[in-house]
Amino acid sequence: MNGLSTVLIVVGLFFVGGIISFVKQKMPTSLITLMSVGATLCIVTGLLQMEV
């Protein structure tokens, strides 16, 4: 596990926390969807980087 994969996973989890906050604040669905895609990409990329 290198530094880049750790950073990507942490950023993805940070985005997940933001998503939960945005849902509680009843923010627009498009913003929540966009942030969900970003969080998913960060986490998946971080996990794939660990395999290399």
Walk me through the structure.
The chain has 52 residues and is an all-alpha fold. It has 2 helices and no strands. Helix 1 packs antiparallel against helix 2. The radius of gyration is 12 Å and the shape is elongated. The mean pLDDT is 93.
Descriptive keywords:
mainly alpha, 52 residues, elongated, 87% helix
Mean pLDDT: 93
CA-based gyration radius: 12 Å
User: Which H/E pattern describes the elements?
Assistant: HH
**Count the strands?**
0
| Biggest β-sheet strands, sense, barrel | none
Give the helix tally: 2
> Outline, from the CA principal axes?
elongated
Low-confidence stretches: none
Give a quick rundown of the structure.
Helices cover 87% and strands 0% of the residues.
Question: Which SSEs are present, and which pair or pack?
Answer:
Elements: H1 3-24, H2 29-51
Helix pairs in contact: 1-2
